[in-house]
Amino acid sequence: MASTFFGLNIASSGLYTYQTALNTTGNNIANVQTEGYTRQEAVQKASEAIRTSQKYGTLGSGVETTEIRQIRNLYYDVKYWNNSTSLGEYSTKSYYMAQIEDYFEEVNKDGFTAAFDEMFNSLEEVSKNASDVSVRNQFINSAETLAEYFNSLSTGLGNIQKDCNEEIKNKVSQINTFAQEIASLNKQINVVELTGENANDLRDQRALLADRISEIVPIEVKEGRMAESSPGVGETGATTYEITISGQSLVDTFEYNTLETVPRETRVNQSDMDGLYDIQWSNGLDYSMSGTGVGGGLKALTDIRDGNNADNFTGKIGAFGSAPAEDGQAGTVTTVRIEGTGFTDINKATLPETGTIVLKNKEYTYSSFSYDSASQTYTFTLTETVDNASQAAMQGRDAKVGEAVDYLGIPYYMSQLNEFVRAFAGEFNKIHQTGQDLNGSQGGIFFTGEDALDSTREYGLTVQAGENGTTYSSKDDSLYRLTAANFTVSAKLLEDPKLLASTTDLSQGINGNDVVEKLLKLKSDTVMFRGGYASEFLQSVLSDIAVDAQKADSFEANYSNISKSIVKQRLSVSGVDSDEEALNLVKYQNAYNLNAKMITVMSEIYDKLINETGV
Questions:
Q1: Average predicted confidence (pLDDT) for the chain
Q2: In 3D, which of 187, 277, 171, 169 has the Cα closest to residue 238?
Q3: Same domain for 34 and 96?
Q4: Residue 56: CB partners within 8 Å, gap ≥ 6?
Q5: Buried (b) or exposed (e) across 25-43, using 16+ Cβ within 10 A?
Q6: Rounded to whole angstroms, how far apart are CA atoms 587 and 608?
Q7: Are the CB atoms for 304 and 93 separated by under 8 Å?
Q8: Shortest CA distance to 159 belongs to which of 46, 273, 257?
Q9: How far, in Å, are 161, 209, 613 from residue 164 at the CA level?
Q10: 363 in a domain, yes or no?
Q11: How far apart are CA 107 and CA 228, in angstroms?
Q12: Among 73, 196, 300, 435, which residue's Cβ finds the most Cβ atoms within 10 Å?
């Protein structure tokens, strides 16, 4: 049978319950603008009824709050993370492609077009008065201005590559920090929730960190119950929380793995900046950015920094040989011939002079390479010997230098610049060397590459099949070593304009200009670069940039719109609605007041019972 004062217990349970509901509502209102906050609600249920031993059966005992829970839907979280990864990738690409595009367009106004036209206008003046030293000097200076344009453009692209490289390091550092914080939060959440409470605020912090990681790399999140290690004991009540990146574990409840950036010892592409970072797990496993479904800001940065249009050096392993060790070392080293490559023109090669080549999935360092134009094969000189058994096992297997990154990034645009200056310098030098200067001597190299360590060396020799042999070495002073970064006019011509060759036969007069006339045709009459004329160089490159920039902008806009839609859906479930919370305030206040009124009524009843019903 229920106590006489049972009604007070019922009313007081209502007071406590609706006070909790009011406090929860107040917390929601206080956090209406808090980033990552998830709306909470006080879950109520009727208290356990008591038996009264009366014919009416059991009697309700009031109400109780069972938990303060979050209103959150994992489905919208997963949608948000997936879209956030794509948005992070294309927003990053849009940002850097805009830099590349702006840089090319900016220098187009006062750069290539102006310098190129000025050079050929000055050359036109030379054709009119070839013996005038001042006219010659003006032309040579304008040619140097064109070379400086390419130097500046190469420097600018290199700076963008460096920026991407540093940003990669920052992104990796952020991932590691977020992983550490999530692992720490997992411990705190389990400590709280093992007491039977919900660690809602800690869960909000954890979910916000997962949001941040999803902008950088694609993630998968799994949460479940933790089983007791002892057989037959069952679950502990603790939860597991795992985050994986492309199938590799980043966070495993209380443990986490970290990524690290390791500077490359050698370049992958000829014009790469020094010290570019490779990413790997701290446990030594490789971190792949080329798998299916890989995206995010980190993927975009590596695409911009390393994108070579999937045109890295590949081939099949042919015969092995041996050669004396280089750099004065004793003994011999192994050489390996690579066949069936796509680089049949060494002037289009992007191979670094020294680097790392992968032979049958194993890396070897090479100190130099040569190209045989007759057989179209490359021979690499390795820095170590390879035993006969390994050589036999590698015959006919794949070889490669670098990775195929299917994006038009900095290495691609660097290779386009190098290809143009080599083609232009090669044709210009070839014609110039057929003429005679004002001293009656044969014309020398006009455009060359400046050696940072030896100013007497000139990179610009137009070695071709049938001329001085058919083998090109990476150590030769050939066009291969001429790049947009070191492109310049020969120092001899800068010092003495008389060395400019203007005619094939000086005996016909010092104003002979047949060589100059041939040089003038290089502007718009000679197919030189990607099936077009030299004057169309910048237009060709800008068309590549425009396509990728427009694609990045378009996808960024699309994923941004999708993100807004998902955020609205997410907020419709998890967000705090001020109007709804205001209504809840009134609702819970009225319920609280009614329970208070119940206590007042019961007090009057008990007063009558105790004070006025005595015998």
A1: 87
A2: 187
A3: no
A4: none
A5: bebbeebeeeebbbbbebe
A6: 32
A7: yes
A8: 273
A9: 5, 23, 89
A10: no
A11: 66
A12: 300
Q: Find the helix or strand (DSSP H, E) in which 221 lies.
A: strand 220-227
What amino acid is encoded at 63 in this protein?
V
Identify the three-state secondary structure at position 331.
coil
| 256 vs 274: CA distance, rounded Å | 31
CA atoms within 13 A on the CB side of 559: 24
Residues 30 and 104 in one domain: no
Torsion of CA 48, 51, 57, 62, to 10 degrees: -30
Residues with Cβ within 8 Å of residue 144, at least 6 apart in sequence: 488, 489, 494
- DSSP H or E stretch at residue 206: helix 200-216
Residues 117 and 145 in one domain: yes
Distance of CA 367 to the CA centre of its chain: 30
d(CA 543, CA 554): 16
Q: CA quadruple 476, 384, 312, 306: dihedral positive or negative? A: negative
Say if 484 falls within a structural domain: no
What letter would DSSP give residue 178?
H
Give the E-state strand segments of 246-312 in sequence order. 248-252, 255-256, 259-263, 277-281
Per-residue tokens: 344 = 């049949």
Cα–Cα dist 474/451, whole Å:
14
- Tokens 């096992």 correspond to what residue? 393
d(CA 22, CA 24) in angstroms, rounded, equals: 5
- The secondary structure of 375-416 as a DSSP string is TTEEEEEESS---HHHHHHHTT-EEEES----SB-HHHHHHH
Backbone angles phi, psi at 402, to 5 degrees: 75, -175
Q: Could you tell me if residue 57 is inside a domain? A: yes
- Report whether 197 contacts 136 (CB < 8 A): no
Q: Are residues 107 and 246 in the same domain?
A: yes
Global confidence as pTM = 0.88
Number of domains in the chain: 2
Contact between 24 and 68 (Cβ < 8 Å)? yes
Question: Which residue range is the domain that position 553 belongs to?
Answer: 72-311+511-523+531-564
* Residue 232 phi, psi (nearest 5): 80, -5
H or E segment and range at residue 25: helix 6-30
- pLDDT band of residue 230 (cuts 50, 70, 90) is very low
Contact criterion met (CB below 8 Å) for 307 and 405: yes
- In angstroms, the first-to-last Cα distance of the chain is 24
Residue type, 300: A
Residue 142 and residue 81 share a domain: yes
Q: Residue holding tokens 């800068």? A: 494
Same domain, yes or no: 130 and 15: no
Q: How far apart are CA 258 and CA 182, in angstroms?
A: 12
For residue 243, is it within any domain? yes
The sign of the dihedral angle between the CA atoms of 487, 493, 497, 503 is negative
Please tell me whether residues 241 and 137 are part of one structural domain: yes
- Residue matched to tokens 């840089």: 103
Is the domain of 125 the same as that of 237?
A: yes
Residue 470 pLDDT greater than 70, yes or no = no
Q: Which residue has the higher pLDDT, 4 or 82?
A: 82
pLDDT bin (cut points 50, 70, 90) of residue 604 is confident
- pLDDT band at 465; cut points 50, 70, 90: very low
Residues in the chain: 615
User: Residue type at 8?
Assistant: L
What is the pLDDT at residue 328? 62
Nearest to 459 by CA among 426, 497, 498, 437: 426
d(CA 380, CA 368): 6
